[in-house]
Structures are given as structure tokens and as C-alpha cells.
Write a structure and sequence with these properties.
Blueprint: H1 2-9, E1 16-17, E2 21-22, H2 35-38, H3 40-44, H4 68-75, E3 81-84, H5 91-107, H6 110-114, E4 118-125, E5 128-138, E6 141-150, E7 154-163, E8 169-179, E9 182-187, H7 202-207, H8 228-251
Antiparallel strand pairs: 1-2, 3-9, 4-5, 5-6, 6-9, 7-8
Length: 260
């Protein structure tokens, strides 16, 4: 009964992927959320199925951790949504596909698909494609920017899964640290420089104003009010982005037609 009440108050299951697993669980902010939840986050974070993927088929079983820390991050005005990416998912391939999908669906056909023209600009970290910036326009005026990218936390990837003395699977073999633990969507602050140049330290990034790709606790929110038209566009784009990510999880490609 407690688990059912928790799910009703915070999270509801998202769409299913192959194997009847839930790819994501949507996050919902509390009533004490700050301005961001009342603006962009209220339209997207409360409804987007983008917090934590289902446990991967590989690896040792882990207890399901609640999404409270993520909800707190949204309430503090940091994120629209965030999900942990399993260690075995290739970051470069995943982001490359999502970037190309966004270029086609939003950059080339944003008005038709989501209601407003949009531009897509790549974001690099350590000379790797780390995400992209989505700018939304209306009548030639930029209304807001969204950052879609990995964070800079690391997750441990092991070489294989073995069996322990108790019969349960354990991670064995060589371990590697994989950067980009979480995949995040966040609003960006207009007055900071938009750049696609690689950077090599948080200090350099902060000094030049590239806050949106620096230490994530320092990212700032756009303080402009969100209109109904903009809210609808953000919701439509983020929902389509989540669907593309679900296709990648299920089929290994964001371009697969899952209706077939």
C-alpha cells in the first residue's frame, strides 16, 4: 500500500519498450517547487517519462532507488528531467543519433512538428559530442534555450558478470569509469554565450560564461515567463525526444519505426 501511494504521488509508469519493461519513470515536483517548476518544468518535467531507465539485462541486480533526489533537483530549478544511462550504453553513438534526430525533426521541421522554428547547436566536452543546445523561436525572436546533454558524473563499467558464492551475480573483470552517468534536459540562461568550442576545465568554462556545459549545479534558468504556445512546443519536443531515446534503448536506433 505504501508503494502504491508513493507511485501515485510522485511517479507513474511510462510507455513500455520491448520485453514489457518500463524504459522511464516520469518525475513529478512537489507543491513547494520553485519558479522553474511553475514555468517550463510544470509543463514538461511533471509529464515527461524521463528519470531512470529500467534495470539493464546485464549486471548484478540492484535495489530500485527512488527518484526523490531528481525531484528535488527539479524543485530547485536545475533540471527539466534526468535519467541515468546504463554503463554499457555507448555514449558517443547514443548522443550522435539523438543529435542527428533532433537536427532532422526539430532543426529542419520544428515549425511543422512542434509548432515553432528551432535550431540545434552541438555541445562538445573533451572533444566529444556531449549534447546539444535547442533554441526555440517565434517570429524571429528567440524565446528560450534547452540543453540536452550528459552530465559529467561517472559510472563504473565492468568487463563481465560472474556468479558469487551465494549464487547471485556479481560484477567481475576489469572495470572502467564511463563519464556521462545521467542524460539531462534543462533550460538555459539567455545572457550567457552559446558556443560549441570544446573546453577542458570547469574554471575555463565559468570564466567565459559557458555555464550550460559546466558544473551542473551552476547552470542558470531562463527567467522569462513561459507562454502557452512555448509550453506546448517544449512539451511536444521533449515527448518526441523521450520516444526517440526509448527506441534507442529498445532497438539500438532512434530511427526505427516502432509501429512496425
Amino acid at each position: 500500500m505504501q508503494l502504491q501511494a508513493f507511485n501515485q504521488s510522485r511517479c507513474k509508469p511510462a510507455g513500455l519498450v520491448r520485453g514489457s519493461r518500463h524504459a522511464f519513470i516520469p518525475i513529478r515536483c512537489s507543491a513547494a517547487s520553485s519558479y522553474s517548476c511553475n514555468a517550463a518544468s510544470s509543463s514538461s518535467a511533471g509529464r515527461l517519462p524521463l528519470t531512470r531507465p529500467a534495470r539493464p539485462s546485464m549486471g548484478a541486480p540492484r535495489p530500485l532507488r527512488r527518484s526523490t533526489p531528481i525531484c528535488q533537483s527539479v524543485a530547485n530549478g536545475k533540471l527539466i528531467s534526468s535519467t541515468e544511462v546504463p554503463a554499457f550504453i555507448p555514449r558517443d553513438d547514443m548522443m550522435d543519433q539523438l543529435f542527428r534526430w533532433s537536427m532532422m525533426e526539430a532543426g529542419e521541421s520544428g515549425q511543422r512538428n512542434f509548432g515553432m522554428p528551432m535550431t540545434i547547436a552541438p555541445v562538445y566536452y573533451e572533444e566529444r559530442l556531449w549534447g546539444f543546445n535547442v533554441s526555440i523561436f517565434k517570429e524571429g525572436v528567440k524565446l528560450t534555450d534547452l540543453g540536452v546533454m550528459f552530465d559529467k558524473n561517472a559510472v563504473t563499467k565492468h568487463e563481465w558478470v560472474g556468479r558469487g558464492e551465494d549464487g547471485f551475480p556479481v560484477m567481475e573483470g576489469k572495470s572502467d569509469e564511463v563519464k556521462g552517468k545521467n542524460f539531462e534536459i534543462c533550460p538555459l540562461f539567455h545572457s550567457h554565450v552559446i558556443t560549441t568550442a570544446p573546453f577542458h576545465s570547469d574554471e575555463d568554462c565559468i570564466a567565459t560564461g559557458r555555464m550550460y556545459v559546466c558544473m551542473y549545479r551552476n547552470r542558470k534558468l531562463d527567467s522569462d515567463p513561459v507562454t502557452e504556445d512555448l509550453r506546448a512546443t517544449i512539451r511536444a519536443y521533449c515527448t518526441a525526444l523521450v520516444a526517440a531515446l526509448n527506441r534507442y534503448y529498445a532497438f539500438g536506433s532512434v530511427f526505427v519505426d516502432d509501429a512496425q
